[in-house]
Amino acid sequence: MPDRRRIQPQKADxxxxxxxxxxxxxxxxxxxxxxxxxxxxxxxxxxxGVAAQRRLQETSAETAPIQRWKSDSxxxxxxxxxxxxxxxxxxxxxxxxxxxxxxxxxxxxVDPHEHLxxxxxxxxxxxxxxxxxxxxxxxxxxxxxxxxxxxNTFYDGLTPHEREFLGGIFRRKSGTGDHRGPSDGGDREAxxxxxxxxxxxxxxxxxxxxPDHRKGVQVTALDPNFTAPGVMEPVSATxxxxxxxxxxxxxxxxxRARLTQINIILEHFLDAELEHAHKQGKDGFWDTTIDYHxxxxxxxxETGTKxxxxxxxx
Length: 314
Fold this sequence. Notes:
Blueprint: H1 14-21, H2 25-30, H3 37-45, H4 50-60, H5 72-77, H6 82-96, H7 118-135, E1 141-144, H8 148-156, H9 160-170, E2 175-176, E3 179-180, H10 187-192, E4 198-201, E5 226-228, E6 231-232, H11 234-247, H12 255-280, E7 298-300, E8 307-309
């Protein structure tokens, strides 16, 4: 039977199927750690097509419209207006059960978590925490570990069949509560909304280390997390392993070799998503969310006016 986790016509390989279903220890061990980002960046910057795309991006930056890159489910996860709607939903449920009577006999305090589904209760807690962190300036933007521009370049190079295959793996169903909608935006949005690849933090303009806002740093630069100086966080290391593979894809002319490389790249994405799910205690990566508790990863820079990640490669 063909492996649904791999783009055909490559032969199904049980060993590679297992690697697609669980984090690859071999790839994790081989993933880049300290002292390698500069080499990865140099390889990416010199890859065919990257320089031309960079020139186009720089030329059109002033007039380009804002890109709507978030999937529908990601918008739900970061919509602070849902705090009030979820609390209102809890009050409605309490009224239906006769446990809340508004100003007639109260008002009674309603614990919303007692009247919401487990999923909605978790989302309410996450959004309330996000609102608190945002007051400190640390929940204003989502940053991509693998740069969004590189992901778009990768997606643009896929065939319609390959795009559909990618979306079939990573696209979620949107909706609220226990009622899930029929779609989650397009396949591109599924790729740019991978939760393992997103880091909640300050606005890029308020960072001193943001690749998109640093002079001399290319727009295709990695933005990984580190747990200590020079120690890359495991999910970031897995994603960093895909970085040179994506950068080198345009140079591959043999169709079978190209398809093999695409499958390996998708396995890196899948590994990162599964590692992220394990970190959050979820059974599957479709049930994960962004990491709302990232405030400890940030600190003020030397000037005291901007933010930076607490740990870096140095």
